Structure formats: C-alpha cells, structure tokens
C-alpha cells in the first residue's frame, strides 16, 4: 500500500508543479500581450498625430498659395465653397 501512496503523491506533486508552470506561462503570455498592445496603441497615436500635423501643414501651404496668387478679380475661394 505504501508504494501506491508514494506513486499517488508523486503524481499529484507533478500535476501541481505543471499547473504552477502553466499559470506562470499564461501570466507571462498575458503580460507580453498587454505590453505589445500598449506599444501598438502608442505607435498608432504617434502616426495619427504625424498625419494630423502633415494635413495641417498642407492646409496652411495651400492657404498661403491661394492668398499669394489671388488676383482680386474673383471672389475669394472661401466664399465659393459648396460645403462648410
């Protein structure tokens, strides 16, 4: 009977160790996933800011070009817009 108990205890301890290892691996995977998600979100925000700044610079450049080349004969383009 004692060898059965020893075998049972050794099997149970092995299962407990595997369970603990699996929990550690799952936690590490979760932390890694959170880290990469945060990095991706930061990069997406950075790209969005860069695009917004580029659009603003383009808008300003077009506005300056229109003001420079306005001949005064026609109403300003601001008054001819079909949308607001």
List its traits.
84 residues; mainly alpha; 1 helix; signal; secreted; UCMA; coiled coil; sulfation
Describe the structure.
The protein has one helix spanning 2-69. 0% of the residues are buried. 81% of the residues lie in helices and 0% in strands. The chain is mainly alpha-helical and 84 residues long. The protein has one helix and no strands. It starts with a helix and ends in a 15-residue tail after the last helix.
Could you provide a short overview of the structure?
The chain is an all-alpha fold and 84 residues long. It contains one helix and no strands.
- Helicity, in percent? over 70%
- Give the topology string: H per helix, E per strand: H
Uncertain regions spanning at least 5 consecutive residues: none
- The oligomeric status of these chains comes to single chain
How many angstroms separate the termini?
89 Å
Helix count from the secondary structure assignment: 1
Function: May be involved in the negative control of osteogenic differentiation of osteochondrogenic precursor cells in peripheral zones of fetal cartilage and at the cartilage-bone interface.
InterPro entries: UCMA
Subcellular location: Secreted, Extracellular space, Extracellular matrix
Coiled coil: 36-64
């Amino acid at each position: 009977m004692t060898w059965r108990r020893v075998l049972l205890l050794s099997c149970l301890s092995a299962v407990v160790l595997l369970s603990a290892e699996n929990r550690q691996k799952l936690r590490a995977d979760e932390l890694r996933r959170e880290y990469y998600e945060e990095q991706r979100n930061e990069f997406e925000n950075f790209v969005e800011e860069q695009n917004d700044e580029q659009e603003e610079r383009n808008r300003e450049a077009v506005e300056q070009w229109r003001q420079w080349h306005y001949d005064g004969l026609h109403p300003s383009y601001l008054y001819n817009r079909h949308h607001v």
